[in-house]
Amino acid sequence: MLSVNNLGLQYGKRILFDEVDLKFTPGNCYGVIGANGAGKSTFLKILSGEIDPNRGSVTLEPGNRMAVLKQNHFEFEEEEVLNTVIMGYREMYDIMVEKNAIYMNPDATEEEGLRAADLENTFGEMGGWTAESDAAELLSHLGIDESLHYSQMKTLTGPQKVKVLLAQALFGNPDILLLDEPTNDLDAETVSWLADFLADFKNTVIVVSHDRYFLDMVCTHMVDIDFQRIQLFTGNYTFWYESSQLMSKQMADRNKKVEQKRKEMMEFIQRFSANASKSRQATSRKKALEKLNLEDIKPSTRKYPFINFQPEREPGDQILRVDKLSYRNDKGELLFKDISFTMNKNEKIALLSKDSSAITTFFQVLAGELEPATGTVEWGQTITFDYLPNENDAYFSAENNLDLINWLRQFSEEKDEQFIRGFLGRMLFSGEEVNKKSGVLSGGEKVRCMLSKMMLNQPNFLLLDEPTNHLDLESITALNNALTDFKGNMIFTSHDHKLVSTVANRIIEITPKGMVDSLQNFDDYLVSPSIREQREKLYGHAISVG
Question: Engineering a disulfide at 38: which of 9, 34, 145, 195 sits with its beta carbon 3.0 to 4.6 angstroms away?
């Protein structure tokens, strides 16, 4: 068990949180949520002992082992991949190194031999005799090919290093598992496998993630950092969100009787309890919800940006035609080829690829920023598109370091300051924040500005390359709702499973050998045997279905 007692942290006059008392118990998965800058990652660093609080203490039950997902991707550059994973159980790894050094020393003394025998027994009791096979199995599940297991970490790509470090954290059945954004750079199949792994994990998991699907699949509780407090709530992210929204609505409805409100809340809890079987943590969450007191549910104090895309004109019948599109990068590598499709009215296409650079290049070709090697892109005459790029630094360069009012004004036909202020206010830039220089914005603030620009343009077609990057859960939820309600067409890509599964009504996956085109929804696409067969032919290897 892990206990937090009277915890407080502040930097100067800024208090992140204070008087925090929590207990994290085995068998539960706790999702840590909060707005950007609220202190989620900092809280995990306090739990792991990486930084000290100003007040209070963190107590780990004696004999318990804690594992942490490392954030420094270059920490183990000279180590072999397999050894890097085993290092997740440091005591076991050190014993392995010491005993192997004795075995390999031809001049080892009798005393050292006895020491090696003792180490061997301890090593076996810790599960060391299967350490290499256990580590290899984790790596394989995470998509690290066996041919790389004895390579040095420095030879791996960035996403591959992330997967190895995730395997390191999972290795050896730790008592407490701390994971900060574990789904970053993972494809949908790997995220599904990780969700299954954590569902079967018998000990304590504490996770920070912006992936709502993942939080829903694995979490039994939510840890909410908000207004200098940290509070614990029963249920997954969707239960926390919908229950707090219902409570806020009830508080606003002063005329409704107390008993009627109570009945609504009880029906809401029972509905979620009944649907708990749809999630990975079904049994534990259902039991937790059945024990839930109404007093435990509180309205959220979060603010959600107002995102609403209203097309200036309705699209005609001719939307977009792509014919035999292909592209090679500067190294001559083929990123995609023979991509052909025609879009129909009301279609919202989720674009997939194992190679994120291929997707970004494809968007740049559609937007007219790059010329394809072969093929054509033909937009309908009534189509007005706007493009949200993955990298938006060009819009916030030092030469264009305007305050937010003047930054947004350059994209607006309406130049009145009150109109611009009102628009920024809906996107949570209020008061003196509108005087902030665009060059010093955070990643999430930049994306909110880009979304504001798109809303002002009123396009009837959206091109969105990873629109949820850098956004907090509140902004992601608002964007998800806006894209669901959008009356035009779109092509988008996102690692946010829930966004893709609730918005897309067509899936296109591009590869250097061709494409897969399906009218199935995202969840069906991932498990369809026929789709999997097509994908395996294009990629040349088996694909797990999670």
Answer: 34
